[in-house]
Amino acid sequence: MEEYKTIELEADDFFIEKKSRFIGYAKPVKTQQEALDFIAKIKSKHWDATHNVYAYVLRENNIQRYSDDGEPGGTAGVPMLDVLLKEGVVDACVVGTRYFGGTLLGAGGLVRAYSHTSKIALQAANIITMAECDVMSVDVDYSFYERMNNMLSDFSANIKDTMFADNVKLVFSIKKDRVEPLQSKLTDVSNGRYNLKYIESEFAKV
Predict the structure, then answer these.
(1) At what angle do helices 176-189 and 142-154 cross, to 10 degrees?
(2) 131-205: which CATH number, 3.30.1340.30, 3.30.70.240, 3.40.50.2000, 3.40.50.300?
(3) Which of 99, 155, 181, 186 has the most other CB atoms within 10 Å of its CB?
């Protein structure tokens, strides 16, 4: 898989539907244990909630799990999972906490409410694209530093580290297919003075 979508951070959001309060939580997770720990944390935080519904999708082994936590079957966990699948988001866990407000929403109302809970949680957690990238470094003179910075920005590289010594060393991640065009541009602009050095490959935000 060359690229995939996930979420960037742990976040939450809420809304009120017919006096029921729905809180959506989302967190990036890599393993089932991380997902279960996150679900347990939210459940203990909202031990007094009517329901703590969850869904998660993991890239490894394409694992998909959900729970309705006492809501009528198919009205809670499935809609939350559906949102993850429709957005194409993996390595993510969402928990929908509901405090019942006294008015029944009906099956259709519950499906809409839990779908919305999942959506707002993902939006708050910021959906990002991860792609196979090369981590590279380049050493440039101070006089070329600003120009190099601009060039990395033009090629959508993410700077990981900048070290200032006799010259400036930049460490950055960049999509694999952009390494060669960047090197060509750098060779052109610097008259062959600077070269990129490969460090390793990783999945990184693009």
Answers:
(1) 140
(2) 3.30.70.240
(3) 186
